[in-house]
Amino acid sequence: MSSHQVTQPKSARTRTLALVAAGVLAAAGITGLAVRGAAADPVLPPLTPAELLGKVAAAQVDGLSATFEQRSDLGLPALPSDLGDAGNDLSSALALLTGTHTVRVWLAEPDKAKVALVDGTTESSITRNGLDVWAWSSTKQEAVHSKIEAPTPKPSGIPVSPTTAIKDLLDKLSPTTDVATSGTGYVAGRAVYQLVLTPKDGDSLISQVRVSVDAERFVPLGLRVIADDGQDAVTVAATSIDYAVPAPSVFDFQPPAGVTVTEHKADASAPSASGKKTGTKPKTFGSGWATVAVMDMPTTDKPNGQAKVLLDSLPVVSGDWGKGRLFSTSLVNAVITDDGRVAVGSVVPERLYQALAAK
Amino acid sequence: MSAAEVAVPRRSRPVRAWFRLLGSELGLVFGRRRNRVGLGVLFGLVVLVGIALKVSAVRHPRSPGGDLISAVAGNGIFLGFAGLSVEIALFLPLAVSVLAGDAVAGEANQGTLRYLLIAPVARGRLLVIKAVSLAIGSLVGAAVVALSGLLTGAVLFNIGPLTTLSGTRLGVVEGLLRLLLAVAYLAAGLSALAMIGLFISTLTEQPIAATVATAMLSTLLWILDAVPQLDWLHPWLLVDRWMSFVDLLRDPVFTDRIVTGLWVDTAYAAVFLLLAWLRFRNKDVTS
Q: A interface mutation test: which of B166, B253, B255, B271 has the most A CBs within 10 A?
């Protein structure tokens, strides 16, 4: 045997072991950092909720590109993403309610925005460039174009970004909600304030909503909805954010050759929900967190086989309001009655029955 | 190695000696008939996929569906990506497992390991040579799959500008560059798997056992990765972000998952290379 087989002194062996242990720890640390990115909470000057909300409302962001991760755990079974045929609206909507989803967001003031859902090997996106809005789906190989009619300063119906969505939410809260700031943290490597919203109505299924706000730019970076069982029902959090204005080419969507291009002519308010007409306008009961919406089942939609199977698997409930099936999640309850009405709300089922009886 | 080569003072020609050793190792790896047949299988599978897609494209022109596979009908470059996505789950890990199983256990089994150890080459360096040749093997495996897709795609479909998942167009050169990056990314992941295989290979003198163990481990990782109830575990699994190579087909390229994936690969490779070294430096060579 060669000289390398000579038994080493004990100290050398200990050193080797220490080296290996250090290597393993370092590698584990790298993985941990790459996967989670945990750190102690930052120390920030205290702000009252009003001050924080004010700064959020006044925040001026010329542009950003960010990645958000959305995670839902509504107590629903995780559905296979290919339930039904590809591009089935029902199954894709249901798939969004379970599991983890990654969303990329680009914003450039005043009128450019792009949101892309980048799960797995698919991508669907909505791009707004001035008055043009393009919706793209890689599974359907379809691009839908619509035009916004007038340059509205605050287009409300267009899903712009989680950031704007969180901001819109904050505006509507004060009468029904206890608002507080509580602690700090890090989101996407940036120090954040935590804004805590607690519904005043005890029948609400939501126990708390926590919003993380960038401590420097005052852009909401995260949202946690905690159900009354104490579990996180929905979390949205940035995993990376860059406040540089994105290149204009990002917002310049040109439908590629060979895909279906549809011109959408309706009121360009919601290109994502194109084509589906609900029967009547929903009636609402109650207010704030405990609002219940009652509407007629869309009659143009024939529920397909799988939807029917899903519906039939739900528990039957009945009362003086009639009879129906209860679809229950940790965040939302819905009653689908046998006479074709739907009552939905983030409330205990009793509130839904009251609303249905009040018809 | 001839006596004359061994006589060259090691200190003066370290780099050359290194490459000579690596060269002879690579010659062994690619000279083995089973490895060549394996490469042929990797190549042929993509050709089969291409033919199947061509047949279905002729029967159902413009069938809807926009996943990787059905996008091939529009562009041959896509067949390179589709081939990678088809083979990354089983065939590429299997091929890497075969190489890794052979690396140490194969030599021990044939009784050639002790001759290697008699040569004036430190065990650590020998292991590094094995690791580098496994990494090159991983790269060649992924490259053969991509090349096969590209050639088959060029013959059966047209090669032209590529539609990304984001609905934008990429020129041919840019498309080929993205394919190259995908090959490099997957080669990194496969190399990490190869390091696990190398470690297992130092534990046994039966190359088949090491190969089967590595291949089963990779399959197990894929299965664990597909169970939604274990989603807390997924970020820690080696294979979890391998499919993220399709993020190269987005515009702008989505690097978050790929970068994290490379870190995970690095961590796995580092840990198992260290373990392999710890085991190999004191391994008793009995056969």
A: B166
Reference B103, options B220, B239, B1, B203; nearest CA is B203
B168:A256 CB<8 A: yes
Q: Token pair of A124, please? A: 């669907």
Last residue of a domain, one of A224, A240, A273: A273
Same domain, residue pair A61 and A206: yes
Range of the domain at A328: 283-357
Put simply, the answer to whether B64 touches A23 (Cβ < 8 Å) is no
A238 and A336 in a single domain? The answer is: no
Count CA atoms closer than 13 A to A107's CA, side-chain side.
Answer: 19
Phi-psi region of B94 (alpha: psi -120 to 50; beta: other; left: phi over 0): alpha
Report CB contact under 8 Å: B275, A20.
yes
Asked if B246 lies within 8 A of A121 by C-beta distance, the reply is yes
- Is ipTM strictly over 0.90? no
Q: Which residue of A has its CA nearest to B277?
A: A20
Structurally, how many domains does chain A consist of?
2
Closest among A59, A172, A69, A55 to A109, alpha carbons compared: A59
Domain finish residue from A215, A242, A273: A273
Residues of B in contact with A258 (CB under 8 A): 74, 163
Q: What is the pLDDT of residues A271-321, one digit of tens each?
A: 444 444 445 677 888 777 888 888 877 655 555 666 677 777 788 888 888
Residues A320 and A198 both lie in one domain: no
Cβ pair A140:B74 closer than 8 A: no
